[in-house]
Amino acid sequence: xxxxxxxxxxxxxxxxxxxxxxxxxxxxxxxxxxxxxxxxxxxxxxxxxxxxxxxxxxxxxxxxxxxxxxxxxxxxxxxxxxxxxxxxxxxxxxxxxxxxxxxxxxxxxxxxxxxxxxxxxxxxxxxxxxxxxxxxxxxxxxxxxxxxxxxxxxxxxxxxxxxxxxxxxxxxxxxxxxxxxxxxxxxxxxxxxxxxxxxxxxxxxxxxxxxxxxxxxxxxxxxxxxxxxx
Length: 230
Description:
- It is built from nine helices and four strands, in the order ααααααααββαββ.
- Helix 3 packs across helix 7 and helix 4 (66-78) packs across helix 6.
- The chain is an alpha+beta fold.
């Protein structure tokens, strides 16, 4: 009687393997260089790490399986590599780049499909929270407002994006204990930017956050200087 062959071990992609991949690091760094040349705020390792951490916090807090949480981290870390190609349609470019990277790293078709669809749907011009990983990525990306994203240190030459980010002294994403609300709480120094400045450039992003939160069965609340605005 022929012996039964042991089942082949299924290898799953990990956030640690993606973060430690030299090609990934190069693409993130070079994509941010391109954005710096165009005058954009920081989109390098600080940004993608924070997006990955926020995505992880959201799905883990809501009790999603650990591997889904890992996929959200990976999507968050890779989401802006398409800026290496061009800022226009960078979500779609990044999704194609991520496909190649993850396929070469041995990720399964299911993992690749989840991550790529999240990356391809994160930019507000075309974004749709198509799955929980995409929803967590959107929320992680659009809530990253902080002073350290501003490259220009001359406050007299700030554009509106510089002013809004520089004015954000504190930014906190928090899910309530009942898992019904996701709050973005900002502490804004209004001598650099008014609350209306924030709405002028971020209203579309906040509406997208609301849709992403709804995908996760949450309500989205925006609170600036202890005043609820959404």
